[in-house]
Amino acid sequence: MTTAWYITAAITLVSTLMVITRHYPVHALLYLNVSLISLALLFYLMGAHFAALLQIIIYAGAIMVLFIFVIMLLNLGQETATQEKRWLKPKVWIGPCLLALILLVQFTYSLSLSKGETYINNVVEPKAVALSLFQSYMIGVQLAALLLMAAVVGAAHIGRHKRTNVHRFLQHKPDES
Amino acid sequence: MTEPYHYLLMIVLVLFTLTSVAALLIWVERRLLALWQDRCGPNRAGPLGLFIVAADTLKLFFKEDWIPPFADKRIFVVAPAIVAATVLLSFVVVPFAPNLLIADLHIGLLFFLAMSSMGVYSIVLGGWASNNKYSLLGALRGAAQMISYEVFMGLSLMGVVMLSGSFRLTDIVLAQQDYWFIFTQPLGFIIFLIAGVAETHRLPFDIPEAESELVAGFHAEYSGMKFGMFFIGEYLGITLISAMLTTLFLGGWLGPVLPPILWFILKTSAFIVLFILLRASLPRPRYDQLLEYGWKILLPLSLINLLVTGAISLLTS
């Protein structure tokens, strides 16, 4: 089990690294997808089966498809890739790498302080997730619902059709939509 | 029998059966379509024309396997494999009969939904990697259609989950011992059936392909066995949706007199025939009509179904 965990963790890290180094947007998104799926597998190995499958259904299955959908619509070709290549010169990497290095040092320091707890493989049933969501974290659920409601109203407003009649006989008619 | 051998045997058995069934469905579909359209259908090769399956497969293998020079080669090759792989993975959780299944996951239903949502990628990537305008249009339509219908697919199944109190497919089947869920969840059944047709992009809803407007849609550039993979993936998808309809709404393997596995096969084949009949009888709707129908009718209906089921199960418990 531990071996599987380490292999999956390595896949997650490598695929995430590939996401930021790819020049083609679609290739980067596919690596992001692999990273999300392997993250789901990590959840699964740690016993959070329900969260793992929701991760696949929602992130890998729906949100990433929408991302790829938009990228496909933009039809980014060879030009974007060369532009990306020009932007991602080795010099550009210095700043982010330095900042990430500081974070890494902090992370290893805080890890060395902890008591070295190993992960416990206790399976969380969907029922337990539901109970904690709708009892102790009710306010979070409601706030998320409110936010989504606002997003839906906004999307409906932006996506509303403004019907324009091209033909001169129809132009003076009152707007139908 | 020891555990690992049992697993291995089951996997080989299921894989072999499914691929043969998918191949056989080519013949079944052509014969049934011919029957309903007053034609003969394929009847030359072998008894009842059964060898058409072998002939078709051989033909696909010997065709030139061409990758267009303008395509994104790696993604172009991977895309057809995704559809077959995700559908075959979904069969891991389907209980064919008591103790005749590969893995009895306690979140089996969610696993099925997750795998069916991953299947979208094969259409999207296949269409994008072909670098062809018709393919891209097909892929865009496919992505929009499958994402929309996934929502109702998931929602329509939640009534079943509520009534049986479990995501485990064996528990769902066993919860139908007194009455099948098709009687208590008729709305959920109809919505799942429609969403299932849209999810496998079968004929009334084959808008990603739509040969009269998009040549062949997302797989216009595919040939040889890569096209065959899409083809097999579609038939496997029909088998999967039929098996899931049987398991979730028609009591799975449950039934009198006959052995359980026979009941499962009977119910599943009845649904497969229904799928073919749908193809034979219904015209293809327009793309915007399909999406509007989904979001404006099926989504509210599935939400109402969820609400009523929840209220009733609260009142009776």
UniProtKB/TrEMBL annotation, chain A:
Domain of life: Bacteria
Keyword terms: Cell membrane, Membrane, NAD, Quinone, Translocase, Transmembrane, Transmembrane helix
Alphabetical list of InterPro entries matching this protein: NADH_UbQ/plastoQ_OxRdtase_su6, Nuo/plastoQ_OxRdtase_6_NuoJ
Membrane topology: Multi-pass membrane protein
The EC number(s) this enzyme carries: 7.1.1.-
Coiled-coil spans in chain: none
Subcellular location: Cell membrane
Membrane-spanning residues: 6-21, 28-46, 52-73, 93-114, 134-158
Gene3D superfamilies, per the entry: NADH-ubiquinone/plastoquinone oxidoreductase chain 6, subunit NuoJ
Reactions catalysed, as given in the entry: a quinone + NADH + 5 H(+)(in) = a quinol + NAD(+) + 4 H(+)(out)
Pfam families membership: Oxidored_q3
GO cellular component, one term: plasma membrane
GO function term, MF aspect, one: quinone binding
Complex and partners: Composed of 13 different subunits. Subunits NuoA, H, J, K, L, M, N constitute the membrane sector of the complex.
Summary of the function given for this chain in its UniProt record: NDH-1 shuttles electrons from NADH, via FMN and iron-sulfur (Fe-S) centers, to quinones in the respiratory chain. Couples the redox reaction to proton translocation (for every two electrons transferred, four hydrogen ions are translocated across the cytoplasmic membrane), and thus conserves the redox energy in a proton gradient.
Database matches in NCBIfam families: PRK06638.1-1
Family: Belongs to the complex I subunit 6 family.
Designated name of the protein: NADH-quinone oxidoreductase subunit J
Source organism: Dyadobacter jejuensis
Automatic annotation (TrEMBL), chain B:
Keyword Chaperone belongs to the record: no
GO terms for MF: NADH dehydrogenase activity; oxidoreductase activity, acting on NAD(P)H, quinone or similar compound as acceptor; quinone binding
Transmembrane segments: 6-28, 75-97, 109-128, 149-167, 179-198, 235-255, 261-281, 293-315
UniProt GO cellular component terms: plasma membrane
Reactions listed under catalytic activity: a quinone + NADH + 5 H(+)(in) = a quinol + NAD(+) + 4 H(+)(out)
PANTHER family, per database record: NADH DEHYDROGENASE SUBUNIT 1, NADH-UBIQUINONE OXIDOREDUCTASE CHAIN 1
Name of the protein in its database record: NADH-quinone oxidoreductase subunit H
